[in-house]
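In keeping with the milestone schedule agreed at the kick-off meeting, the structural modelling team has produced records for the first pair of proteins. Each record is given below as a sequence line and a structure-token line. The laboratory manager (R.T.) confirmed that both were archived under the project's standard naming scheme.
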Amino acid sequence: MKNKFEANSNSNVLFVTNQCNNRCIMCCQPPHNDDDIDAFYAHNERLIKTAPKDTKEVCITGGEPTLAGDKLISLVELIRQELPNTSIHILSNGRNFQLNDYTHRLAVAGGDKLIFGIPFHSDYCGDHDLIAGAKGAFNETMHGLYNLSEEGCCIELRIVINKLNYQRLPQIAEYIFKNLTFVSWVALMAMEDTGYAIKNDKTIWIEPVEYIHQLCKAVDILDQWRIPVSIYNLPLCLLPPTHRKFAKQSISDWKTNYLDICKICKLKIECCGLFSTSKRKFKGLMPEK
């Protein structure tokens, strides 16, 4: 955990708990059932009170942050009090936002500074629940998404691409257009090869070169319907030139890694690079000169 924030960093993180009500099969931060909420709250309180006043963004994550209950609301209120101009990005599986009153109170606490990053694994409930490792997760997350929409919240819909959902990426894009047009943007994300992703390697790992066609088709569908879409965690050299404009500098600065071959690449300054935490590096990397 960080002991201080940096104003311009993209990795100012408040870790709320190791607990989670999902068991996502590619989770990069495998959960534990520790009684840790109070200890993390005390640490996060100190971080917020000593943070630079011009801190651009704070990410709240876990585990599942909503398992902190009212302490998550208190944390958001404290950020708004101490850092009124700072964006607050909450990474949650969205299931507990099916609770109307809780969602409303959290939305009020965060106001227009709140962004919710919610995973959406598939348009098919069976696949979503399998990837999330929790029966009924799809229905609860969908309910949560609609409740967040009712509150006028900013929603980043996150799709982590793996072997179980890559073939349906175009269908997922169509589903989003038909059912979730209220989201602020969609992020299609390459997987970080760590945590449960290593344990479930044979079930979920797929190289980006194998899914680029489906990824680009999904991007085109969303872009055609004017739903903002971004590509996270994929080096530019793996994307066709036509789709590089959708790629973002998405990897936390402390996790970003570039290979020796990247030194001569003219795209490096714009490229997100690779996860330093990943066990393997993507195949097909080729610097552009």
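The second protein of the pair:
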Amino acid sequence: MKIMVGIKRVVDYAVKIRVKGDKTGVVTENVKMSMNPFCEIALEEALRLRESGLASEVVAVSVGPSKCLDTLRTALAMGADRGIHVHSTSSLFPLSVAKILTHLVLFEKPSLLFLGKQAIDDDCNQTGQIIAGLLNWPQATFASKVLLHKDKQVVTVDREVDDGIETLSLNLPAVITTDLRLNQPRYATLPNIMKAKSKPVNKFTLEEFNLQIKSDLEILQVTEPPKRKPGVLVASVDDLIHKLKHDANVI
């Protein structure tokens, strides 16, 4: 059984984001980039299924500029068997990415597609759902536990909802998006980093796919959030209640 995992290259979560002077986006030049944390979780879950003998191959896929190869190499060092890079220099939003990944799914024919529930750069939380719609596959989002049955025909997914835990049973093939509490991703060891250099990465361009990709969104302006107001000390609960009722600057 083959598992495909979507990987996105984003600004590292520990980097303080800076808005460009012309407010067209955020500064990415000379900024540390890394794999989206939710994608790491998705990859880790796929690797665990392969190591348990329930999957035979894990394929990591990334869409974007040439530097995405570095992120793919990290995925290969973590344990993915091979990578696929779809080169694109333009800004791609969820619908466009979903169309590209759908094309790859139809070509590769995986039984499971794992994605992070969202990327920390745009927080869209849309790509997995759109792919499931385009493929007409069952989907489970915000997965906190994944159990693949030994017959490899059904997967059971626990997902966190407002009321607690919801359990879904999906027939394969299916799309699963992963949440934080699903697992703890492994670190790539030095020997595996060296081995990753010899693992295959297939490269494609959008022109080869013959897909009509166009932006369905337009970014008008990017601005920093307003600075947080300093806290206010109160002497008693009564003072706190009074300020909450009558002082608009406290809220």
